[in-house]
Specification:
12 helices, 78% helix, membrane, ABC transporter permease
């Protein structure tokens, strides 16, 4: 009896994990805070509409500038911080973490279900405004079909950024049981300060996301390049994708191991 019940129980783990993912994903989408975040993500779309209606700026120039200066460096990390940080911490602050860990699921699967829910939510909230922005800008330029590869490249870069940032912010939350503060500190130190220093910039997610997008990897003052390097570091898109995948995998593995062993006090 034992030998037949154990496999059945193991096979039932995956549907339970998928149900946890589905419940958490639905809760994320229905949250009022998600609507606020979506409104923030749509701000560049409204600006683009105003420029198209009253300005003379080329639509695709507007799209590329918005991606390089607004979405990739700020709005993508913001969405990841919003969904990744609270993935577990919300359960602690809501005093439901004990009930969550009492589910007949391995803790590793509980964490992964919550993380994937956060990743998918952040992907949706960032991707939809980018597609809208592209549609407006490309239509105004009359280059809708011809610029589809540009959309694919930017969507790919933003998606990689969302996944990597979410994994890192969720890891920090799992380690320190703090959702926002540590994520903000990390972003300021690593993604703003260290990302502006030649060579050290390689440890920042921002550098590799820009590389995937086909932008110059570095985003810093020119005098730093002249002081330390003859020219900025530049790599092919696959290098940025590889490093981002390593960051995501390591952050997920570390956070999963910590969550599996950590004793939560509420």
């Amino acid at each position: 009896m034992t030998s037949t019940s154990l496999p059945a129980r193991n096979l039932g783990v995956i549907p339970q994990a998928l149900r946890l993912f589905s419940l958490d994903f639905g809760r994320q989408l229905r949250a009022r805070k998600t609507l606020v975040l979506l409104a923030v993500q749509l701000l560049p779309v409204l600006v683009a509409l105003a420029y198209v209606a009253f300005g003379q700026l080329d639509g695709m120039t507007m799209f590329r500038n918005s991606m390089e200066s607004v979405y990739l460096p700020f709005l993508v990390p913001l969405a990841a911080l919003y969904f990744g940080g609270p993935a577990i911490v919300d359960e602690i602050e809501g005093r439901t973490i004990t009930y969550l860990t009492l589910r007949p699921l391995p803790r590793a699967l509980i964490y992964l279900a919550k993380l994937k829910s956060a990743m998918l939510s952040a992907l949706l909230v960032t991707s939809l405004p980018i597609i809208l922005l592209f549609g407006i800008c490309a239509f105004s330029s009359g280059e809708l079909l011809g610029e589809l590869p540009t959309l694919g490249k930017m969507l790919g870069a933003s998606a990689v950024g969302v996944l990597t940032y979410t994994a890192v912010f969720a890891m920090l939350a799992a380690i320190f049981s703090s959702s926002l503060l540590l994520g903000i500190v990390y972003y300021v130190i690593v993604e703003m300060v260290i990302a502006a220093i030649p060579v050290l910039e390689l440890v920042s997610i921002k550098f590799h996301v820009r590389t995937i997008a086909g932008l110059q990897g570095a985003d810093r003052a020119g005098w730093l390049d002249r002081l330390i390097l003859d020219e900025p570091l530049n790599f092919e898109w696959w290098f940025g994708l590889l490093v981002a995948a390593i960051f995501t995998t390591l952050a997920t593995a570390v956070a999963t191991a910590i969550f599996r062993e950590k004793q939560f006090h509420v």
